């Protein structure tokens, strides 16, 4: 199997041209001298989890933030890394392939070789399987040349398997020790970065000198938090999907006779669906987060869509486009509960054929109501992370069928007076994630690759490479490193029958923030999108000319630069200090005391564990 | 409904930029003075059909070819059209939307207004329905501005309905007479252009002064013959699909665990599948034409794929990509026969639920063997052109299931020793045809629009706008007009039970030429594609920079320039004449006589009706 990897096929003209594209570097990473500034010690966003996380990660919890600065930056405490001994670094692709993944390896390779030509980069072949079995390929410029700025993970291959069981963790440890790796770079999403943190802790405990670094690469876009603004692959996948959605919108409007139901990738969270909606303006999107927040049943959703179809029919419109995130099935309360029962029976070893007869009465009634195709799909074994096989469950077909049945019923009753309802279903999954990466993803991944080296050079373990200020051009990007534990939370509720009531610390997928600006933009326009067909076509992904430098709308509208805002707060505090010095008037002191007492009171309440547990409702 | 058309939505940055793109014109169409050269009187490619066609089209059969030349061209017979009276032209979109359709209207509008600003262009709203019901929209520059170089047919809308029944033809005639149209331009594929020819003849018989012009616009790429090298939309659709196929190939190679079965649009012919294969190098493609030529059964095809899966497994490869044209079902002899029985029962008014009980014993046995989902799809009503609802019949799923069953059987028998076979199915249909058109399609459509005007200005009726030498840059393109009847043939065999044994003259879809160069290229590389995974990614459709000027491989490799070669032959004949003049030697005369006798003998045989009927085997 190995022999295929690193052996490129024939490149098209565009692929060749893309292979020549050289991503830029922000000023802080240019040249061979980089300063590291160590910032604050970190905590986690959920105060209720601190104790559990610090207990689980005694060696790697609470470490300081790191910022990479130019050698000439005027920060007194920053330290310049001057020694660059020979280094041996391993790199592995984990989870679903995301456009841009190859560029992380390229960036890492370039900077490793720049700092010491004798250093080596070892790729694990076939993903984590290769990590466990020590199947390696030394990355060279010759091998890289055909994968620069190219999509897929085919230079090394990948796996969806996790690094979780004791055997797996031990195998990884043994590999790193045998190969005497100084660093291990794990390229992946929330699960893989959780695994990276766990490995880092295990290695520290075992006295293994390999430092573990995570890189946020996932087309789902759900590895988002105070430190991580975007994920490699999300930009490309949203652009490719938006183009296809827009093409379908144009099609709908030209033919005027079909409703298209399109399911999009993105796992549990609906980031891809939200971004594509903002780019393409389809008539409707059913976000999993809205459904969960409003506890909408499958019948509520069906009714919503039917009402929309009816309202459009009254304006003589018999076409439309409805987007559905692949995670929807787990957001619908009754379907989620049914899935939990099924998965629990799977765990008890009940065979798929016998599960339906062992369901509780209510679950059985729901199950029997569903069409056969969806029953078969719900009965599939859960994935290794306990979630349903979301890519296999055709919710778009289920909704289209239910809507058709309901519209036909309304037609008979005389409440719907329009033409026949025709639906065509699509799943846009696999056709986007192997795409040539957008310029943004090429740049972002390449720079992250560079940061990985600097994290290792600074001797840090259990960190993720991060870049903030991403909505600005590359030369304004701020590069840093964050302990992965600072992104972890602990779920406080039971999940499935018989499982424990407190989860393990993990980097959990961020869901769409229903109070965020991107979602606000959708709400603001939803009525227009629904009725007015103001479809918008971002067009095919461009590498030159107009559109080639565009970024996702989510990234552009969200408040970002968390670290910049932390800095701003510190400036305020400094300013208060400088005003309220001995000698200031009684009135100034009184005002300052009163105001600060109020601020600290509010923040104490918001930061208490009991407040935190309310603020984090289950998905 | 009308109010929506011509009302643009919000354009993205790329859409805006594309709207500013100005396609070029070949020298012969630049300026306001164009010469028309009338060439040979035409015949048809199939000598056996001449009689039937000339009988059906007494007014429009056999007309001369027309070539458009620069005013300064040194062709003595050519005539310059100097008068450009006020003209009123109607235009209608027919059939499936193809990227570039809007540009035909734009080109037509520009040249109409250039020659006489008082002339008007009337668009029929909602396709042929608008034509029958006189629902119109005057095309203005303001309306056009948001549709220039944009995809879809949403400026006017479209329908799939034909202009075929007496009522429809009469309604169209009435519309043209009422609106006093000088010309009617019909934008569509084989069916619509056949209808255009029929309308032209009917109008001529009725003494209606409206001249009818057809334009070859169909993403299927099957309106191909001596006069038509390519169709508007094919280039874009193949590029978009090839990108998606390539993305899936990269995905397959990255994950190494799935076989992807992808069905492509293209109706009965496999041009799209062939072109995409040449662009993307997937492992396999099942061309309908190969299947029909070799009379492969569904079991033969299943076995072919299984053998490929097995051969790849022996090389430790468990992934792959298989392309399937949507017309495949009608190319498989036993499925086609089953469909014919079903359609015939439909025609007899048997309801879908009862059809299965009335099938002949063998058809019933086959029907019962098939999985329920495909049975339901086969029972769908045939389309208006008597073909099955190809877009609805999921042959990719059927093949994936049959292959899985067969591989599992081989696994039990011990002949297949590899890992489990996993298939994922896709239908790439609706997501490509609404795309922003490629530069080639923008240019091609725009220039065709110009030609439509010149055809009308020359007073021609029943012609199609044609451009040859397309593989060269725009300034080398040769523009002309061909009587649509010259592209017609008559099918000589029975189609379905109870239908007549001789068909009507029609422009039939051209199938992939199994002796052609494009197919030769596939055959030459098929073994490598199958085993070596030399996937190639043409990347997203580009509008600037590398790749933006590429054309389809089919167009680039095929021998083209039919008219150029006719010209070359005439040069040979002239040369023989000039050598063999009175006074030449006896030997020269003897050699010439002998050689020419042999040439004329061969050509006489090849052009005889009986030879022709053999050469045109049924699809």
Automatic annotation (TrEMBL), chains A, B:
Gene3D superfamilies: 3.40.50.450, Phosphofructokinase domain, Phosphofructokinase, domain 3. One of its GO terms (cellular component) is cytosol. InterPro entries: PfpB_PPi_PFK, Phosphofructokinase_dom, PKF_sf. One of its GO terms (biological process) is photosynthesis. Allosterically activated by fructose 2,6-bisphosphate. GO terms for molecular function: 6-phosphofructokinase activity; ATP binding; diphosphate-fructose-6-phosphate 1-phosphotransferase activity; metal ion binding. It is found in: Cytoplasm. Pathway: Carbohydrate degradation; glycolysis; D-glyceraldehyde 3-phosphate and glycerone phosphate from D-glucose: step 3/4. It comes from the Eukaryota. Its main location: cytoplasm. The keyword RNA-binding does not apply. Pfam families: PFK. Tetramer of two alpha (regulatory) and two beta (catalytic) chains. Belongs to the phosphofructokinase type A (PFKA) family. PPi-dependent PFK group II subfamily. Clade 'Long' sub-subfamily. Regulatory subunit of pyrophosphate--fructose 6-phosphate 1-phosphotransferase. This is Pyrophosphate--fructose 6-phosphate 1-phosphotransferase subunit alpha. It comes from Spirodela intermedia (Intermediate duckweed).
